[in-house]
Amino acid sequence: MAAQLLEAADLDEITNPINSTSLSSEAYVLALANLPSSYAAAASAPSNRIDIYDKESLRGIQTLAGHEVAVTSLSTVDLFVGSNQPCLISSGKDGLVSIWDQRSGAPSVQMTTYEGGNRPLLCCDVSMDGTLVAAGTDLQGDDAIILYWDVRKPNVPLRKHTYVHSDDITAVHFLKNPYGAVTALPQDLLLSASSDGLISISNAHEDDEDESVLHVGNFGCSVAQAGWIYDPDSPRIWASSDMETFSVWSQELDQLQNLDIRGPSVHTQKRTWVTDYLITSLSNKQPWNDHSNLMVYVGSNEGDVALLSCSDHSDSDAPWTLHRVWTHGHEGIIRSLLYDEENHVLLTGGEDGRLNLWSSPSMAGDSSMNVDESIPSTSSARPAVGRSLSRSLKRELEDGDMDIDDEMQGKKARKG
């Protein structure tokens, strides 16, 4: 039985972005990052650039060269050796990890995979103290490698772990402690996920690879995304597959929840919401309902976005809540999303090449967290139509090997 999706008592539907803009080239918006006074957007081929936009107007103010081949990840580094302000870090299929200096528009530090040649990188992250960088490679031959660099010696990897995964490494994330001195969470644990179906937690400072892996969980399907769920007592992990299955795991990688994220849906006289794919999940520093601090953002093939939460991530049949819906901003798949908590806005980027800035008031302590369980939910009201493109198909589209077939986008009824 599919998990139930209930409307929040104060469900908010936002139909118009505050501001919108489009990439300067015919490309997808692959990733977004938040800087103190601007947003950064990574573009797909043929651009492969990183564009910088003013936060209020979304006016383009700078373009960084990006990577010679596809940009595969983009994020903000709050603390980095040699820098006293947040900066951008990106990885690419050109085998480089770049830390960007916006003043010069060029990398201030660039990490290479090997002397004499580079290997495509699919993801990267920086440790909480800003001294260690990790990146994951694609599979070549029998090896998919997690590489580590000391940022003060970027030319040669500090160490490499070759046996953690046996296929493309799709995500690496250091455990970062957002609670300061409040808790004693272990530092420099690295979460990694792979197309081999495994989720792993490793000691990033361990040279002996046989001793480095602390916990392993087997999702049983190719893992597309993963991340930490921060908790002052015991952090957990979320992960999603290429088939849109969503899971939550304990710190020891015992699976707590596993469901098809497309299952929970709303069908009432007022509204129909059917999820076609997961966009991403974000963890708040503090819980914003009684049970969870995990915000799950999902999308429709028509380009709408919804915010969901689950009442109990230890139960795959636990009810979910629909808190907010953003509509009429995109055409097609949403590839990236950024929640700017400080400014109470949501930034979305899609395969239509558009960037949309939306109102998104803080959810913490919001009355919309009180679920109105009197609202009926029935799967017979309206059938769900359309599902997302597979991640492998998206990669082929991104690389320009295939044209988008409009019939594959599917349709979803907006309202009853």
From TrEMBL:
Domain of life from the UniProt record: Eukaryota
Start and end residues of each stretch annotated as Disordered: 366-416
Compositional bias (Acidic residues): 398-407
Assigned keywords, A-Z: Repeat, WD repeat
Lineage of origin: Eukaryota, Fungi, Dikarya, Basidiomycota, Agaricomycotina
WD repeats: 327-359
Organism: Pleurotus ostreatus (Oyster mushroom)
Gene3D superfamilies: YVTN repeat-like/Quinoprotein amine dehydrogenase (2.130.10.10)
Amino acid composition bias (Polar residues), ranges on this chain: 366-381
Pfam families recorded: WD40
Name of the protein in question: WD40 repeat-like protein
